[in-house]
Amino acid sequence: MVLTHFIGGRPVAAGPGFPVHDPVTGLVVRHVHEADPEVADRAVRAAREAARDWAAMPVGERAGWMRRLAEGIEERFDDLVAAEIADTGNPLDQTRTLDVPRGIANFRAFAEMAAQRPEEAFHLSGTLSYTVRRPLGVVAVIVPWNLPFLLMTWKLAPALVCGNTVVVKPSEHTPGSAAVFAEICAGAGLPPGVVNIVFGHGSAGQLLVEHPDVDAVTFTGSTRTAAAIMRTAAQRVKPISFELGGKNAGLVFEDCDLDRAVEGTVRSAFTNGGQVCLCTERMYVQRPIFEEFCARLAARAQEVEPQPMISAAHRDKVLSYYALARSEGAKVLAGGGVPVFGDHRDGGYYVEPTVVAGLSEWSRFNREEIFGPVCHVAPFDSEAEALDLANSSEYGLAATVWTTSLDRAHRVAQRLEAGQVWVNTWDVRDLRAPFGGVKLSGIGREGGTRSLDFYSEPTTITIKLEQPDA
Ligand code: 6OD
Asked: Does ligand 1 come within 6 angstroms of the Cβ of 435?
């Protein structure tokens, strides 16, 4: 079977097919149609045709549609989990407890937030100004492969509830859960054209970005792709929202609870094979506990179940960084190779969870995002030095701090150059909070009212009030 695009409420089989591989085995799991210019244009036109009625619908009604989609996801929960796992090779438990439930939460949370959002009003010298918010129009939603359903719905839900229609382009590696979602939209009777999904590689995303009838672009992925999107979007001054790469730092102070710091770092470095933009790739540990932290982290890394990388190319990229670490003079404390299972997984795209030490801040290994299950560990002596090291990166998405001092927690967190700082925890997400990165890690914030701000624009209306007789 070849997965079809979803345009104007119907499946559309057009464009050449391409294979999708199971990262666990390397075998082909499905074929998918690749969007060509005609398909992209058809999808954008369908979105445009649906835009007026969808935008005119009262927000409370659109919120009702979001709740129905959430119910649809609940009904197709097992199918979504299966599709997500087939494409990503992500662990079953993680997919059941994180990726798919977050899809439900995204639709419910943004339905509530949008429906309850107040407008603004201002009085000035006998005038009343108030705002009405309007959708942007047709939004291109370009989604990465690491947590495909979570990240697609994180952008779709606020875009839709604000009154936009969308064309979604999932990653070429992970079309499956989006295809199930298309069936959910059709089954729920969502007005045709409100959600359109086209499949394909980066070139398909590019077709959407450059389409004159796409009004805004939201993207999660690499900084390099974002720069290309930005150049194209600039031609028509399209609004963009980008959540990009990271080279996230973790700071472990000697006053920390070491058990929690080690276990927290195991999660923050190795979850999903390190293929989460929030994962930690640089750990800085205060010198008195450095040796013990390294020994314990290295021991735990060897117990972590390896996860597959998304593709052979990505596995090779991660392995090239393992080789780079050695050539730059690193000491490998754990991992550094390819696991051998002696079963079907030996055809898959696995690398070992890896811990290295001994490299300078200026090594390529410590500057470039790897996006694999690997972290470098280095010692520091003072809080000021720890902050300098953490902030030396060109990226600034997330950071972690491990300390039992409340004063230090606030002081350090406020000085870290990152969009999100976690203290004594990692990847706890409150959907109402602003989320995004500084420096090369992104532009703009989504989450809570920040999402509603991005996916709609205020018009200010100012009325001269009648002055009472003097
Ligand atoms: O949790 C989220 O909402 C989010 N946007 C996570 C991003 C992960 C990137 O790989």
From this structure: yes
Nearest CA to ligand 1 atom 3: 154
Give the tens place of pLDDT for each residue, 75-128. Answer: 999 999 999 999 999 999 999 999 999 999 999 999 999 999 999 999 999 999
- Close Cβ partners of 406 (under 8 Å, ≥ 6 residues apart): none
Residue 277 CA to its chain's centroid (Å): 7
Q: Identify which of 351, 355, 353 has the alpha carbon closest to the alpha carbon of residue 376.
A: 355
Distances (CA, A) of 185 to 7, 180, 192, 253, 318: 11, 9, 9, 49, 37
Distance between Cα 277 and ligand 1 center (Å): 7
The residue written with tokens 């052979």 in the block is 312
127-175 pLDDT per residue, tens: 999 999 999 999 999 999 999 999 999 999 999 999 999 999 999 999 9
Query: Which of 34, 172, 243, 281 is labelled catalytic?
Result: 243
Strands 280-286 and 374-380: parallel
Which atom in ligand 1 lies closest to the alpha carbon of residue 220?
Answer: 9
The protein residue whose alpha carbon is closest to atom 5 in ligand 1 is: 151
Distance 183 CA to ligand 1 centre (A): 24
